[in-house]
Amino acid sequence: MNEKRDPRLQARGLSIGYDDAPIVRDLSVDVADGRITVIVGPNACGKSTLLRGLARLLKPAAGQVVLDGTDIATMHTKEVARRLGLLPQTSVAPEGITVADLVSRGRFPHQKLLRQWSADDAAAVTEAMRCTGVSDLAGRLVDELSGGQRQRVWVAMVLAQQTPLLLLDEPTTYLDIAHQVELLDLFAMLNRERGHTVVAVLHDLNHACRYADDLIVMKSGGVVAQGDPGAVVTADLIEQVYGLTCQIIEDPQTGTPLIVPRASSHLRTRRAPN
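Now predict its structure.
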């Protein structure tokens, strides 16, 4: 019989915030291996703070983040970066850097004194750029790109790290609906076909329900629900967390919950065109 192992990434009694102001309070959560976990909740509820804490960008006031059985705070930076890739909510590229050079920086954790740039590094960068559709931008300056193009380049850099864990803070920012779906489909492929564990913060609840294996619903710095979207997403939960009256129907494409906000009386009584 196989011995049950702890998840690779865990938060234990985590309290974390900014300038001694706690945002996440005494939070414990396990990230399921080999699955897509999506964190949702209203603005300022602690979603991005939790993700930044899991990635060791914020130091906890209490509790700890455990990565592969070790307190992440005690691990070497390069070791963390070989196991965990983070796409932050906002990123600023060095001035004058090209797309290819920026994506290549995703290979930094794999560089050593006696192992510099290799064929494996070049292949990882080429594949990351191909997956994100930015290969034709390789020689362009990042500063010259549109917001959507820049976002895909940052995603390519994270993919070039080739980490088993991907942490994504609002990865669809700046993208139109077609590119949002394309990018989320890419992460689903990386999860299903290549075994990446994915943790993403998303604002779009219907995207979250469609792509998540596990949904973490936050409010006021804590977790109010966690589990399969079909089991935890109800009209009562959405009203409790967001103050939004809605109807939950089945997504005709995936069978996952589809949240339909209640129309205001102004919309329901809108006159038909002449």
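Residues 94-161 form one domain.
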